Amino acid sequence: EIVLTQSPGTLSLSPGERATLSCRASQSVSSSYLAWYQQKPGQAPRLLIYGASSRATGIPDRFSGSGSGTDFTLTISRLEPEDFAVYYCQQYGSSPPTFGPGTKVDIK
Amino acid sequence: EVQLVESGGGLVQPGGSLRLSCAASGFTFSSYAMHWVRQAPGKGLEYVSAISSNGGSTYYANSVKGRFTISRDNSKNTLYLQMGSLRAEDMAVYYCARAKGSGYYLPFDYWGQGTLVTVSS
To answer: Contact, B115 vs B22, CB < 8 A?
Structure first.
């Protein structure tokens, strides 16, 4: 199975700053079948990005995804107070779908 | 509005069984593959199982293979997860999630709120 590694484990930033989250796969992700999810405490995950760079319905354009092969990035251009959360990457191009361990974005 | 509502969680002894349900509304349930994902307390997301839109194909993570059974009733718009031989490591919040279409190789675009399964004597 494909193992995903996310870095950093925790990112401490202030509102208005830019956040750059990394996701690295143990082998190439088929057809860039890579998604990003946001999860806040006590809530279910929410799909942000799929296909490495396509925003899901209703997701603000401050969220963007990039990358291919084994290296992917989620960028939040200017952090809003509601963006402080845990972010997971997921590959869904091969079975089983796998998730990364998550990056927590907290307030500095 | 798409809604997924899980139920059936609770306290069960090691070795016991439990059936989770996920009631779907707001979309044509029979047109979408469905998944179960779990999250142990304070931990990350772990994939559990999948079922095709017509129920004819299923998939299980190695950690639950042979103990869990996924099924669906498209006439009732409901997804199920029958869990048996439960272990302490199965304790988690269980989420049902909708695939963004009928196929397996798709992201999960809607999630339920989760139901907690506690395995303890």
So the answer is: no
Residues of B in contact with A102 (CB under 8 A): 44-45
Write the pLDDT tens digit of every residue in A1-53. Answer: 999 999 999 999 999 999 999 999 999 998 889 999 999 999 999 999 999 99
C-alpha B6/C-alpha B15 separation (Å) is 22
| Per-window interface: A 88-107 vs B, CB < 8 A | 88, 90, 92-102
DSSP string spanning B22-80? EEEESS-GGGS-EEEEEE-TT--EEEEEEE-TTSS-EEE-TTTTTTEEEEEETTTTEEE
Residue contact A44–B95, C-beta within 8 A: yes
CA B103, A56, A4, A81 torsion-angle sign = negative
- Determine whether the interchain pair B47/A47 forms a contact, defined as Cβ–Cβ distance below 8 Å: no
For residues B8 and B18, is the Cβ–Cβ distance under 8 A? yes
Put residue A33 in one of left, alpha, beta given phi > 0 → left and psi -120 to 50 → alpha.
beta
Do the Cβ atoms of B112 and A98 come within 8 Å?
no
Count Cα neighbours of B108 within 13 Å in the Cβ-side half-sphere.
30
Closest-CA distance of chain B to residue A51, Å:
8
